[in-house]
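Entry 12.
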Amino acid sequence: MAKDESSDVARVQGQASELTPYDRFVQYALERAEVESTDWSAEQLTRDQVIDITTATDEDALFKAMELAGLTGLQYLENGQEIVVHDYRFVRGNLGVGVYAVINATDVASGVSSFCAEANARGIHVTSFDPIYALTPEKIAERSEPDLESVFRTIGSVPTYRWSYYKTPERMRDFRQRAYRSFLSDYEEHRERYVAGELPNLPFADGSFDLTLESYFLFAYQDRLSYEFHRDSILEIMRVTRGEARIYPTVTFEAQPSEYVPMLRSDPVLERFQFTEIKTDFEFLVGSNSFLRVRRR
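Predicted 3D structure (tokens):
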């Protein structure tokens, strides 16, 4: 941060009639992060430079940038995928850190996660995709508690999990019980947000989403899903994604790095994409502290 913040305030406020609040924030954040850019428009930042800025700038600086740009009334939520909400979105959690002017996002293989419900409640338009959405709310409800109870009874004795976040299996069960109940409520009321289907086929038009998220399916089930399935799924995910995709984690359920990650990087069919592993500060499954970011070159 520059020491003379008064000059920053005057400069940013002086541009109010020329730039949108988001553009003012972007300009300031880029300058504070000392990230070179020939085009710092909201569109360019959202898709190409957000990680550069958020890894070069601490959170206090980002919030100061928002304040100077006139973005006020922020709300900070502490849960698995924290969100700071105003007109623009600050997403933080096990899928990384970023500033997004998100119009549409999709959550692939999302199951009974509450992410779709929570995001839409805060103005982020998320569509979830999973085979389970072919079932009625009643059928999903019948399965949810027994499935959670089965996980709860066994997971405490599994050595490949770290408990720094959840602390105890009981606390993990409480978190996940709240999550699936939130999902069920939203699923009953907003079925249009939940689309049934299976990878590697997505029933969406090309470039439908700014951001696609996927967690605990690709890579995690490496022993059941072939490399070709992974490759085809990523091609399909990127077909429907205008911006970037994030695949979490990059390890298997045996807590081993997936052998498919280097294979994807060297596959000529995927040469138009850039694959980058991004570290996170969340780790439940041992080694699950990174996600794979996929962008077009």
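Annotation: The radius of gyration is 20 Å. The chain has nine helices and eleven strands.
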